[in-house]
């Protein structure tokens, strides 16, 4: 599913590389937490998966493709098999819940009939049945994140990438979101989630990958958040 | 590709940047109207050249009795019959000459009176024997004046050789100058229009960065992300080009057909066919150039 072979990434004008010689493999259907303090390289890791950035050295394989060799015009095709969720939801404030989810399918040219069927289905799955025509501003943070997850999942991606999805939510709401991500994971979708939320990581007991100053310092199945800093 | 989706995006984009869109439309319209106008002007000048060069002659004025004092070339008195015959024979031998016509002083007097009017005091003070006899020569190639001039200006009995084309060339130079000025202004307007488009794209890329960011993440192709911006510019450009066409057509209708034709009858003016032939070019330019400018601007302002 995902393989990093000795991946390093340096940005221009920064002497310290953001990732240093990271090698790891993530299988299909896994649920992986990515932890580490700010600046440890989590974001760079996720950006490499999305091919927002390319590795400086080493190889990144996602869904069986070597991203360094993937030509630019094929990148959108690859991204259609990935879903992405962010801390700040990134919903369109002028569109309803349904329209926000439908937007993801419209812009990749899905036929209208398919959109009409898929959108209510996925909204039901994330627990927003009945709120299709609400505006994002009328929803709570947790509900907004559910819309974002619905949008990321509506195209049934192989891989869901979540960058601190509970970062803006209170603990109780976060638990709901985690349950949802877990449910999505059980449908066979690989989930990679970067987080700072110790409680969640400790509760879920999933694989934990820890980065520190760009190095992979821990890769533990059924792990906990980490040592007390 | 869902046409309805793209169209609604374009509509939203154009409404959001209404003032900017208006500025783009106006500047595209003005620059393309100038462009079309200058093409038509060029055509007008070449029609006029053809028309006039067909009529103008080279004239060889011969000395008459009264010229002996005023022109050094005529110091030996009026041209003799032998000199005239010789000049005529030599002219007819020349390859560049198409037709030679002799104008007697009586004929010259008549033309002169026609030009100034019977009652003009100037015309009244002139007598037929003051007018010069002349050869009116039609050349096969109007630009070959120099050949006649070198061959005949030093001949005994010749007062001077005049190229009537010289008189017109000032006019044509003026028209050409105006044409270049129009082209210059057009280029300037075009630069303004293109810069406006680049700026519009920048603003609209910024105001739509949320949408485009999401589109990128869910795997919309760069074509799909960029097409609304390009179409917005192309649409505004097409409106501008349409306006330019209206300007050109009304210019032909009001200025040329209803005014110039009535006031100036010695010139043949270009007709509708010339104007209509330019419109597709104007429309195509209005469509393509803003689209290309937008596309270039997107490479800078929109990450895809």
Please provide a brief summary of the model:
Chain A has seven helices and ten strands.
Question: Key features?
Answer:
heterodimer, A: 229 residues, 6-stranded mixed β-sheet, 4-stranded antiparallel β-sheet, 7 helices, B: 304 residues, Alpha-Beta Plaits, 2 domains, 4 strands, ABC3_permease_C (chain B), FtsX (chain B)
Describe the structure.
The complex is a heterodimer of chains A (229) and B (304). Chain A has 229 residues and is α/β, with parallel strands linked by helices. Chain A has helices at residues 42-49, 75-79, 97-106, 112-125, 141-153, 171-186, 198-204; strands spanning 2-9, 19-26, 31-35, 57-62, 65-66, 82-86, 159-163, 190-194, 207-212, 215-220. Chain A has a domain at 92-156. Helices cover 72% and strands 8% of the residues of chain B. With 304 residues, chain B is an alpha+beta fold. Chain B has two domains: 2-52 and 169-302, no CATH class; 57-141, Alpha-Beta Plaits, CATH 3.30.70. Chain B is built from eleven helices and four strands, in the order ααβααβααβαβαααα. The chains are: A alpha/beta (229), B alpha+beta (304). Chain A: Keywords: ATP-binding, Cell cycle, Cell division, Cell membrane, Membrane, Nucleotide-binding. Chain A: It is found in: Cell membrane.
How much of the sequence lies in strands of chain A comes to 15-25%
The helix-strand sequence of chain A is EEEHEEHEHHHEHEHEE
Tally the structural domains of chain B.
2
The helix tally of chain A amounts to 7
**Helix-strand category of chain B:** alpha+beta
Layout of secondary structure:
The complex is a heterodimer of chains A (229) and B (304).
Chain A: E1 2-9, E2 19-26, E3 31-35, H1 42-49, E4 57-62, E5 65-66, H2 75-79, E6 82-86, H3 97-106, H4 112-125, H5 141-153, E7 159-163, H6 171-186, E8 190-194, H7 198-204, E9 207-212, E10 215-220
Parallel strand pairs in A: 3-8, 3-9, 6-7, 7-8
Antiparallel strand pairs in A: 1-2, 1-4, 4-5, 9-10
Chain B: H1 3-16, H2 18-55, E1 58-62, H3 67-70, H4 81-93, E2 97-103, H5 105-116, H6 121-125, E3 134-139, H7 145-152, E4 158-163, H8 164-207, H9 209-217, H10 222-263, H11 272-301
Antiparallel strand pairs in B: 1-3, 1-4, 2-3
Helix pairs in contact in B: 1-10, 2-8, 2-10, 2-11, 8-11, 10-11
């Amino acid at each position: 599913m995902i393989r990093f072979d000795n991946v390093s990434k340096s940005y221009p004008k920064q002497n310290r590389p953001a990732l240093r010689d990271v090698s790891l493999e993530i299988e299909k259907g896994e649920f992986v937490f990515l932890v580490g303090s700010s600046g440890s390289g989590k974001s760079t890791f996720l950006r490499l998966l999305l091919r927002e950035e390319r590795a400086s050295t080493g190889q990144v394989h996602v869904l069986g493709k070597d991203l360094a060799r993937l030509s630019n015009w094929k990148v959108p095709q690859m991204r259609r098999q990935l879903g992405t969720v962010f801390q700040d939801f990134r919903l369109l404030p002028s569109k309803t819940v349904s329209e926000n989810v439908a937007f993801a399918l419209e812009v990749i040219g899905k036929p209208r009939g398919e959109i009409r069927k898929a959108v209510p289905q996925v909204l039901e799955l994330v627990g927003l049945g009945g709120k299709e025509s609400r505006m994002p501003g009328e929803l709570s943070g947790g509900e907004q994140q559910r819309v974002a997850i619905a949008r990321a999942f509506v195209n049934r991606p192989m891989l869901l990438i979540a960058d601190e999805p509970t970062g803006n939510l209170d603990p109780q709401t976060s638990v709901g979101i985690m349950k949802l991500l877990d449910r999505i994971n059980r449908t066979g979708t690989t989930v990679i989630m970067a987080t700072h939320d110790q409680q969640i990581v400790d509760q879920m007991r999933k694989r934990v990958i820890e980065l520190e100053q760009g190095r992979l310092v821990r890769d533990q199945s059924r792990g906990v958040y980490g040592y007390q800093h | 590709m869902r046409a309805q989706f793209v169209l609604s995006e374009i509509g939203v984009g154009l409404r959001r940047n209404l003032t900017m869109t208006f500025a783009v439309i106006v500047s595209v319209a003005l620059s393309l109207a100038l462009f079309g106008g200058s093409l038509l002007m060029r055509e007008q000048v070449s029609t006029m050249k053809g028309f006039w060069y067909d009529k103008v002659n080279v004239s060889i004025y011969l000395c008459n009795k009264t010229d002996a004092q005023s022109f050094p070339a005529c110091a030996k008195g009026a041209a003799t019959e032998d000199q005239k015959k010789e000049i005529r024979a030599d002219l007819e031998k020349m390859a560049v000459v198409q037709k030679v016509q002799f104008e007697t002083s009586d004929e010259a007097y008549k033309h002169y009176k026609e030009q100034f009017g019977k009652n003009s005091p100037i015309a009244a003070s002139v007598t037929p024997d003051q007018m010069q006899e002349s050869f009116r020569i039609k050349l096969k190639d109007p630009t070959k004046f120099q050949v006649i001039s070198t061959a005949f200006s030093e001949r005994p009995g010749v007062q001077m050789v005049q190229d009537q084309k010289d008189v017109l060339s000032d006019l044509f130079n003026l028209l050409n100058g105006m044409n270049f000025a129009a082209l210059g202004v057009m280029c300037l307007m075009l630069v303004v229009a293109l810069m406006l488009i680049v700026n519009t794209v920048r603003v609209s890329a910024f105001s739509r960065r949320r949408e485009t960011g999401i589109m990128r993440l869910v795997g919309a192709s760069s074509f799909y992300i960029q097409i609304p911006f390009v179409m917005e510019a192309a649409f505004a450009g097409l409106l501008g080009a349409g306006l330019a066409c209206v300007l050109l057509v009304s210019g032909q209708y009001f200025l040329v057909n209803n005014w110039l034709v009535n006031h100036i009858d010695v010139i043949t003016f270009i007709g509708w066919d010339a104007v209509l032939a330019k419109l597709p070019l104007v429309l195509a330019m209005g469509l393509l150039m803003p689209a290309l400018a937008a596309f270039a601007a997107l490479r800078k302002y929109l990450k895809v």
